[in-house]
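Dear U.,

Please find below the material for section 3 of the report. The protein was modelled together with calcium ion; I have listed the sequence and SMILES used, followed by the predicted complex structure.
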Amino acid sequence: MYAIYDKANVDVTVTGQTGLVKIPQAQMTATSTSFQPGDDPSNALDGDVNTWWHIKWFGTDPLPQSIILNLGGAYKISKLDYLPRPDGGNGTITAYNIYVSQDGVQYTKVASGAWLQNNLLKEVNFAPVNASYIKLEATAGSGGFASASELNVYKIIEAPTLQYGNVRRKAGHCSSSGEIGT
Ligand SMILES: [Ca+2]
């Protein structure tokens, strides 16, 4: 089980999560603060490890740089997967912050940390939070760049919401002063 938090907490790691499902990449869209033409942010959502988002070459856009995913809906999310480019080369992110947003304007940091420079899948768990957007900010990366072959976001399967509107006191059993009658 995992704890439910009212607000996102920084640096909270939630392990052993169950009941998570991937948000389909096809419903998400990606933008970024920088990209090299041909290495567009959409490459991080195409299911192809051999295509990737990469910030502009030649160091014209120094770190930090970010890739932002529009989730295509509002969800309670608690995990991000980052798959580096297959060679683990330039742009492999080695230090990061993750932010979420409900409106695409106000962002809250939900995780930060460091990754080894290799091509292995990186998984970040964080306290479940309502979000329509998630932002991966690279603060350090191989060669001073940022890149991502694939990104995936996981949502929590919610139990059906109780319909409180169907629960009503019987007329005559509650006075206008709030006292319960007999
Ligand atoms: Ca790709």
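For the text of the report, you could mention the following: The domain at 20-166 is CATH 2.60.120.260 (Jelly Rolls).

Regards,
Y.
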